[in-house]
Design brief:
single chain, about 140 residues, mainly alpha, about 80% helix, binds fe (ii) ion
Length: about 140
């Protein structure tokens, strides 16, 4: 069902957002100012999407998840307490951005099949945005 996949996408977005913010706080290195700002833009963009996913879930007449334990059980994004070096942070974000894209594409296909046009449009926008994040992360780690 579309709503079930949207809950996974919402949990993925929240967990990915938190990781980008966590790295924003703790990243170190000679490019610190650029990395710190880059991560700021990344987490802000993803954080805003979490709210829209929750509202789409509500519009489909289901309740939106909103606890850390629930997000943890739903998400495909791996959490870690460790604070790696800057390049490893960017690699982790790149890999998990690909995980986000898989979840988003899955949701988009269901929305399209079910003629949920508004939801499909937003998912399409998010896919485009995460492809852009992927390009930037890939360029940093090259
Ligand atoms: Fe900050």
């Amino acid at each position: 069902m579309l709503v079930d996949q949207l809950k996974i996408v919402q949990a993925d977005a929240f967990t990915y957002y938190l990781k980008a913010h966590f790295y924003h706080w703790n990243i170190e290195g000679s490019n610190f100012p650029q990395y710190h700002d880059f991560l700021n833009n990344l987490y802000n963009d993803i954080f805003l999407s979490v709210d829209t996913f929750a509202e789409l879930i509500r519009a489909l007449n289901s309740y939106a998840p909103g606890t850390l334990s629930r997000f943890k059980s739903l998400t495909n994004i791996e959490e870690s307490d460790s604070i790696p070096d800057a390049m490893t942070m960017m690699k982790n974000l790149y890999e998990q951005n690909n995980t986000m894209l898989v979840s988003l594409l899955k949701a988009y296909k269901i929305a399209d099949e079910e003629d949920e046009i508004g939801c499909a449009n937003f998912l399409q926008e998010r896919i485009q945005q995460h492809e852009k994040h992927g390009w930037m992360l890939r360029s940093i780690i090259k």
